[in-house]
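User: Some background: our group keeps a shared notebook of sequences we're curious about, and every so often someone picks one and asks for a predicted structure to add to the entry. Today it's my turn. The entry only has the sequence so far, pasted here. Could you supply the structure so I can complete it?
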Amino acid sequence: MQTKRTAIVNVHVFDGTKMLGQKNVVFQHGKIISISNEVPIGAEVIDGRGCTLLPGLIDAHVHTSEDSLRDAILFGVTTELEMQGGMTKKGRELQLKDKFNVADVRSSGMALTAPGGHPDELIPKEEGIPSFILKKMEKMTEEEKQEFIASFEERKSEDGNKLDVTTKDGAVKFVRQQMENGADYFKIMIEEGTVMNAPGLPMIQPEVMRAAVDEAHKLGKIVIAHVLTAEAAKTAVDVGVDGLAHLFIDRPDWTPELIKAIADKGIFVTPCLVLNSSIIGTSACHVAKDKRVEHKLNEDWKMTMCSCFNTFPAGNMEDNFNNVKDLFDAGVDILVGTDVSVPMPHLGGLAHGVSVHHEMQLLVDAGLSPTDALRSATSVIAKRFSLTDRGQIAEGLRADLVLVKGNPSENISDSLSILNVWKEGAEINLCVDKN
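Assistant: Of course. Here's the predicted structure to add to the notebook entry:
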């Protein structure tokens, strides 16, 4: 957190909900202190003429790590919301202590899924520590390696003594376990597997899911469901979730009834169109090769973006776009999320940070306005996840800010023309070490 007073002047401001016109934004001690036409005396002045100032962007669906959080912030993503992983409060204290040049993060902890259920089909069947983790460990000090191995072995030991989450009692205890680890919300998996080219995956029974949802609500936490089909989304609505972590990729004739139910219950949807596009068989190579992007990605991430899941080529993006637009028109909150995880070809089409910008572009392709897409990556996520200190440019909020050339409220692609990023008022070093 920087103590100096900084003023970004003559800049067009998107405050998280609307464009304010040309303003001067002043921040100090990590907080925004004024938005006005006045230039304060004694401030460091940055001329924002021809630029737009955005709130720090938020990715509402990731699986992340310290390295990934560092990648994300290079693209102005100052907060990631993990939807399965170890970045709970306890995990953050262990892994991110004294780390600054990284995005902030919140986590669900581990999601409720049946033994052998999703995402087991996506995990390489390797003995010991997976190869992509071993590669990451090459950069660690000896002390960091020992701590990581100890943590891995502890997790493996915990996995060997799992609760029987297929029962109501086990599922309720599992919810409590995640909350004890400092989970910020809770997630359940509703995945039969066809869309992932793994039909017949084991699933938790609806009455058990409902017991878990009820327990999370009793503990004051919202619940998000993984769904990729309309049938799974219907189950999620029936068991009482607060949000869908994906968009259903199909469009049966009863889709209008499903959309009405989602809207009537106030459920939000994080479409992850970038993921659905990859599942259908389309890579994001054109995004990876954008001159504003390419120099920020290492070769592993370029390879990943130029690959794709390709597990459900029978799908089509027109159905996805129509589903998103119908949800939006029905008043459903649409959140920007990507489901990005690790750099591996079979998880292709995605990369931390940059895929948020790609997702906003796809939302515009679906019929949302650029301003709607920007809201979906800022204030709408902050509202739905009770992140009351961010997601907007307003006095007293965190100075998580992104300065871009141009005006993404008119041309959404301008969001990638990043000049500066600040996290809690401190400027992020955007120089990249791709090794």
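Suggested note for the entry: The chain has two domains: 1-55+390-435, 57-124+161-387. The mean pLDDT is 93.
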